[in-house]
Amino acid sequence: MSPHTRKLQAWRAPLVALAAAAGLVALAGCGGQTPGAAPLRAGNSFASHGSSSRPGSYRLLSSANVSPDGSQSGVSGGALFGGDYPLLPYEADLGRTLAIVRLYYFIGDAFPGAYKFGQLMAGGRTLLVSLDSNGASYASIAAGNEDAEITAFLESVNKAAVLHHLGAIYICFEHEPDNDAHRPLGSPAQFVQAWDHVHQLAESARLDWNDGGRLHWVFILIHTSYENWRASSFWPGAGEVDIVAADGYNSYGCRTASQAEAATARGTAPVTPASLFNPLVSFASAHGDLPVFLSEWGSDSIPSDAQSEFISQMQTYVTDQPEIAAALYWNTGGHCSYKINDHPASIAAMATMGQSAALQGHIATIPG
User: CA angle, 215 as apex, 214 and 220 as ends, to 5°?
Assistant: First the structure.
């Protein structure tokens, strides 16, 4: 079982308990989930480059058709401070509202599904939404066999942004296509063709941020893929991506402890935010000077001060990297637990980060 599959399986149990306690999700009839595809579903089961018409650089049609701040990220005032759904109950401890929340869906799921977005999207919160394959191959998606479901989903995401007066909402087709669990869906070239097609559906419906809609497109890989050729093999092109993102974790203590090694014997270079995400920042710079999201980041708590220390390092890292437009913490357990729940020092460090000047990013709100 891959680490990614374990991570996604681990996402379910705490989210089920959280949703039941918070009253935000109706979980009756949730049924089974295919491991390794995406975290807990929130949809129906709960109740070659160049196909785009855009040129290599974005065209701005008119001031009425662009993101309210005129940017590809849609973010101003710093980076968006956010996390996954299980981080939401800790907003009071953090002393602030999350600016962005990470959610996951499959093709065929309805949006918003069972989530009560009157609560979730209140107070200016926006979303980073993954739409992953339900098992359909990239070739099938590119051929248009899933068009009705995909178009309905994208239209619903855009409608939610309009309903809640959000100037920007974020969409990713097939997060982490570089993960081994996704190989049965097709080759990197076939992924690019599928991305092209999904993006073209949004363009045709005028849902993109610079075509009169609210959707901003986020390309998400595992952080290690930006260190080598793999990222380029999955790259759809700057004309179809607004934001480049990666998922990355400090799991050193958990892994050494599980291997019965000394958790304090860090071996070679320690894991730092820079070691995880500098290749991502460099890739984004080399591919159109695009903004960056840290779409999932986290740290285990072995040794006991590792998590709070890593969070403090991340605050400094985001402050020093103006390219970073959002940082979303993965507050979920599993084989390696990244939860801050029972660690007062980590909660305090996260609160300090969330209240820092660099993490006061926001998206424009549109009245009416």
Answer: 150
| CA angle at 200 for the pair 198 and 203, rounded to the nearest 5° | 120
Q: Which of 204, 241, 198, 239 is nearest to 221 (CA)?
A: 241
DSSP secondary structure code for residue 99 in this structure: S
**What's the pLDDT tens digit per position in 176-185?**
999 999 999 9
Q: How far apart are CA 82 and CA 99, in angstroms?
A: 5
Average pLDDT over residues 273-295: 97
Q: Answer yes or no: is pLDDT of 33 > 50.
A: no
Domain ranges of the chain: 3-47+79-358
> 158, 80, 148: which is closest to 112 by C-alpha?
158
Query: Where does 3-47+79-358 sit in CATH, by number?
Result: 3.20.20.80
Alpha-carbon distance of 367 to 167, in angstroms, equals 10
DSSP reduced 3-state for 326? strand
- For helices 188-204 and 147-163, the axis angle rounded to 10 degrees is 50
Non-local (6+) Cβ contacts of 92 within 8 A are none
